[in-house]
Design brief:
By secondary structure, the protein is α/β, with parallel strands linked by helices. It has 3 domains: about 15-60 and about 335-475, Nitrogenase molybdenum iron protein domain (Rossmann fold, 3-Layer(aba) Sandwich), CATH 3.40.50; about 65-190, Rossmann fold (3-Layer(aba) Sandwich); about 225-325, Rossmann fold (3-Layer(aba) Sandwich), CATH 3.40.50. Helix content is about 45%, strand content about 15%. The chain has 20 helices and 14 strands. It has helices spanning about 15-25, 30-35, 65-75, 90-95, 125-130, 130-145, 155-160, 165-175, 195-210, 235-245, 260-265, 275-290, 305-315, 320-345, 360-365, 365-370, 385-390, 405-415, 425-435, 455-470, and strands at about 40, 80-85, 115-120, 150-155, 180-185, 225-230, 250-255, 270-275, 295, 350-355, 375-380, 400-405, 420-425, 440. The protein has a 6-stranded mixed beta sheet, with helices on both faces. It has a 4-stranded parallel beta sheet with strand order 3-2-4-5, with helices on both faces. Helix 19 links the parallel strand 13 (about 420-425) and strand 14. The chain is globular.
Length: about 475
């Protein structure tokens, strides 16, 4: 079983990668080329080698989302026992509903509310304001779904542009309905990407939720919270049992299949385990500063990183947990090795390019390496500098790193590097499939999953093998 990713790739040097980048940017006007250049670079193995978290250059086709997408689609939406209101025109909410596959348990309308709620702004609401309409909506939502534990109000662009005061409406409604009503000023035009939506949502949890409830069960030394796992394809249902198997009590999940009252009581846990650093590190830092709760970023993609992460987690606890961790590793290693033995011979030496968001461009690198594959290019839609610092050490030397890449840049890199598999999003999927290149949609696991933990790796390996070695690709000629 591979213990470390390949650090060099034959034929890829710093000079060749820079030449590829320069060629890709030749089409740009001088001003656009100057702005894009710092966002593309060969991997130097340490530090953030590219500039990030900047506005997209006008005219560049970007795959980024907006602050509303980061708030509703990532942080708030997966909480299952709340009503989440998309406050604004129907389009944003409707076309974003159900796309991230945040799976939930419970009975719809009773113990979970995975439906689309919207205030359906019309022209008259833009002219006269929508505060009155929002108040009526909140009353109706509470009347229709009295078992909902709370309501979030996620504002879309027009709400901010006309200056509606959702905060005062939510405050009054919360008092009158005796229910948490959380305003989230996440208008899509704010910030440079969905990343600000994550931050705004973390701030609203800090201001309105955390510390307002207590767990019903007595405290134990092994109480932890699972942070930044959104249950894509059932990931939480794979991770949580493993953490419980090693002796930890998962008291709350932020926010996949999460429950409001457990999230509100998270200030009582002993350790926060964070999976998606980008979207939830803000609250981990708040809980560390305010409540003294340490936090640890972990990676449950692929057996190498699972093993490493379990031992890092065990270091926070006593010998009881350490013994259970070693027992779990001994139990699952042979199972994982059997998976590797099945798929690695067919995937050995294959090249992968990644362009996703959150944690995937770095967390999955070693999962591919476990299967004998090498990631030759990776980048994020909305990362910050610390994301790239974490990515550089995982990626092979001199491979290309790209931030907020355009479709043109990705196409040029693909033509040059000729990967055997691309892992990206729905916006890129059909372009590269039409080029005859195997593709996996890595935002939502391409309608598969889970991919996390020991239960997820066999599914990941199967899906990668199915994509790369499908006989259909022999019928399609790639353009290079």
């Amino acid at each position: 079983m591979s213990e470390a990713p390949v650090k060099k790739v034959e034929g890829i040097t710093k000079e060749s990668t820079q030449a590829m980048i320069d060629h890709a940017m030749e089409i740009y006007p001088e001003k656009a080329r100057k702005k894009r250049a710092p966002h593309l670079a060969p991997n130097e193995g340490e530090g953030a080698c590219v500039k990030s978290n900047r506005k997209t250059v006008p005219g560049i086709m970007s795959a980024r989302g907006c602050a509303y997408a980061g708030a509703k689609g990532v942080v708030w939406g997966p909480i299952r026992d709340m009503v989440h209101v998309s406050h604004g025109p129907v389009g944003c909410g409707w076309y974003s509903w159900g796309t991230r596959r945040n799976l939930v348990t419970g009975v719809n309308g009773v113990s979970q509310f995975a439906m689309q709620f919207t205030s359906d702004f019309q022209e008259k609401d833009i002219v006269y304001g929508g505060d009155k309409k929002l108040r009526t909506l909140l009353e109706e939502a509470h009347e229709l779904f009295p078992l909902a534990k709370g309501i979030s109000v996620l504002s879309e662009c027009p709400v901010g542009l006309i200056g509606d005061d959702i905060n005062s409406v939510a405050k009054i409604a919360s008092k009158d309905l005796d229910l948490p009503v959380i305003p989230c000023n996440c208008e899509g035009f704010r910030g440079v990407s969905q990343s600000l939506g994550h931050h705004i949502s973390n701030d609203t949890i800090r201001d309105h939720i955390i510390g307002t409830r207590e767990f019903a069960e007595p405290e134990t030394p092994y109480d932890i919270a699972l942070i930044g796992d959104y249950n894509i394809g059932g990931d939480v249902w794979s991770v949580k049992p493993l953490l419980e198997e090693i002796g930890l009590n998962v008291k709350a999940v932020w926010t996949g299949d999460g429950e409001l009252e457990k999230i509100a009581a998270t200030h009582r846990v002993k350790l926060n385990l964070i999976h998606c650093y980008r979207s939830m590190n803000y609250m981990c830092r708040v809980m560390e500063e305010k409540y003294g709760i340490p936090w640890l970023e972990f990676n449950f993609f692929g057996p190498t990183k699972i093993r490493e992460s379990l031992r890092k987690i065990a270091d926070f606890f006593d010998d009881t947990i350490k013994e259970k961790v070693e027992a779990a590793i001994a139990k699952y290693d042979p199972i994982m090795q059997a998976v590797i033995d099945e798929y690695r011979p067919r995937l050995e030496g294959k090249k992968v390019m990644l362009y996703v968001g959150g944690l995937r461009p770095r967390h999955t690198v070693n999962a591919y390496a476990d299967l004998g594959m090498t990631v030759v290019g990776s980048g994020y839609e909305f990362a910050h500098g610390d994301d790239y610092e974490r990515t550089s050490v995982e990626m092979p030397e001199a491979t290309v790193i790209y931030d907020d890449a355009s479709e043109h840049e990705l196409e040029e890199f693909v033509n040059e590097l000729r990967p055997d598999l691309i892992g990206s999003g729905i916006k890129e999927k059909y372009l590269f499939q039409k080029m005859g290149i195997p593709f996996r949609q890595m935002h939502s696991w391409d309608y598969s999953g889970p991919y996390h933990a020991y239960n997820g790796f066999p599914i990941f390996a199967r899906d990668v093998d199915m994509a790369v070695n499908s006989p259909t690709w022999k019928l399609v000629k790639a353009p290079f």
